[in-house]
Amino acid sequence: MRHQSLKPPTQLSERPTVQNLKLIPIVLTVLVAAQPLLAHADVTVKIGQVSPLTGELSHIGKDDENGVRLAIEDLNAKKIRIGGQPVTFVLDSQDDAADPKTAVTVAQKLVDDRVSGIVGHANSGTSIPASKIYSDAGIPMITESATNPKLTAQGYKTVFRMVANDVRQGTVIGTYLVKDLKATKVAIVDDRTAYGQGLADEVEKAVKAAGGTVVDREYGTDKTTNWMAVLTTIKSHVPDGIVFTGGDTQAAAFAQQAQRLGLRAKLIAGDEACTPQFIKLAGTSMNSDTYCTLAGVPPSKMPQGDAFFKRYQQRFGVPVQLYAPYAYDAVMAMVGAMQAADSTDPKVYLSKLQALNLDGVTGPIQFDDKGDIRNGAITVRQFGQGDWQDRSVVR
Asked: Prior bond to 59 cis, omega within 30?
């Protein structure tokens, strides 16, 4: 019997045979059928979020993160399409521990993660150094709460702010203390952060402009817990008004120790201390002479505030601490710009963000040519009936 040599199977790249030609329509059918699946595959868009998730400001940082998370959940429920494709938004959350050096590190990580935008940083001292990283990468950042005016004075086109800056807040604090509360001898204390010192400087200008006298300037750090030496010095100047620009944990310790020392004066804290946490920690030292300012509007003045605060409480099991509504609106502003540009590419949708006009939970969202929110408000609040009571909204 004659043995035939075995040959390897014929490849499609070889000269066509009848069998190979029969395979071609099948292959083409499979490829054509796959095209709609490829064309309509979800596009994943990362939204970065940076705040202090550890340390003494972690409750405020988590509040911001929750605001971003809620916005992303709402957007995904709407099944948004951008550039003709369905988009799934995911949260890329980073902890900067309110530390400037850490902020730069996590900013670079977010750039490397190829996020399409950043909500944050929460603090001025972290936002300012991180902003250059994002600017160099061409990625927009929208801070929900960093108030130092230097942030948007750098000239970066990628930087935006959701609340009024400290020029406005400091002016309101100093003027209200002298004109409304009739405190003419004022002591000012800050925590030496970019936020605390910057706000204190603006308060000093405003007190003098309103006809008051700054009788003492003192400071600690954002880690200070014992304020007795500072308070003893302040008491010797017999002020009738004190301004504290620092976090709520420090402000609470400051208020308790002032009470212990028998120091009687009206106390106004800046927005970083305008939280439920301040009230909780300060305890019986809280009284009707305790005030704070909020860089923004109170829930009662937010167009969608009541519904948002209820939904937030239901979703996370805790009340809003401070700037969660602004973090939520920052995400909505960013995605609104993406929809207007029909692109999730930061370099493409940036111009739409600069020209944005959107109605958010907190109110109208429009940015000026520096990236600051237009018509930003400052709310003065007074302690009473166990909570902060809104006394004045200044625009």
From this structure: no
315 token code pair: 């979703």
Q: What is the mean pLDDT of residues 294-308?
A: 93
What are the structure tokens assigned to 35, written together?
Answer: 């095209």
Amino acid at 141: M
Q: Residue holding tokens 């008004």?
A: 241
Can you identify the CATH homologous superfamily of domain 43-165+299-375? Response regulator (3.40.50.2300)
Residue boundaries of the structural domains of the chain: 43-165+299-375, 167-294
Alpha helical stretches, state H, the chain? 18-39, 58-77, 100-112, 124-137, 150-153, 166-175, 194-209, 228-236, 248-260, 276-282, 305-316, 324-341, 346-354
Q: What is the pLDDT of residues 85-122, one digit of tens each?
A: 999 999 999 999 999 999 999 999 999 999 999 999 99
Q: How far is CA 182 from CA 168, 178, 291, in A?
A: 20, 5, 14
Assign domain 167-294 one CATH number from 3.40.50.2300, 3.60.21.10, 3.60.15.10, 3.40.50.150: 3.40.50.2300
Rounded Cα gap, residues 301 and 391, in angstroms: 12
Strand partners, 373: 367
Q: Distance between CA 333 and CA 350 in Å, rounded?
A: 11
Q: What angle separates helix 124-137 from helix 100-112, to the nearest 10 degrees?
A: 30
Would you say the CATH fold of 167-294 matches that of 43-165+299-375?
A: yes
The pLDDT of residue 385: 96
SS3 46: strand
Say if residues 356 and 337 touch (Cβ distance below 8 Å). yes
Please state, in angstroms and rounded to a whole number, the distance separating the CA atoms of residues 269 and 250: 10
State how far the Cα of 145 lies from the Cα of 124, in Å rounded to an integer: 8
pTM of the full structure = 0.88
A 10 A CB-CB count for 232 gives 12
